[in-house]
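The methods section describes the discrete structure representation at length, but only in general terms. What matters is that the chain and its backbone geometry are given together, residue for residue. For illustration, here is how one protein appears when written out as sequence plus structure tokens:
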Amino acid sequence: MTPNTDEKTFIIWDKKFEIGIPVIDEQHRQLVLLTNDFYKELMNYKKMELPKWEPQLMQALKKCTDYVLVHFNAEEKLMQYCNYEHFLEHKKAHNEFTAKVLETANNFNNANFTTALNFVKFLYQWILEHIGYEDKKYVPDLKEYLESTK
């Protein structure tokens, strides 16, 4: 799957991203939506050839980075509840991603268009690989845990 670069939607939600846990699937959809919002603002900036980053673009980036933290917190709690065997590895991946996202956000005023576009591509790759593959690994443990609490 390649990114859709029609300047409206960068990532098209696909059922293959779903893991079967409604709360997490909804959060993943929200991450895709926020990434798309950031992409749209970036394309608007390019189209208008503005001399500096616009507040709308910075706000879209902030919403995206803030939501990543909310989502990871929720997902990690679920993995801890079900005693997911590879929790520490998964958390490490989250921490590395968070560090990259926060570094980019904190240095965004110094970024150029290419750097910003590469960041959106990084988000796309994360969604494709992490949500599409890594997150599915904890699903059996979580479903077993949820069944046992009924």
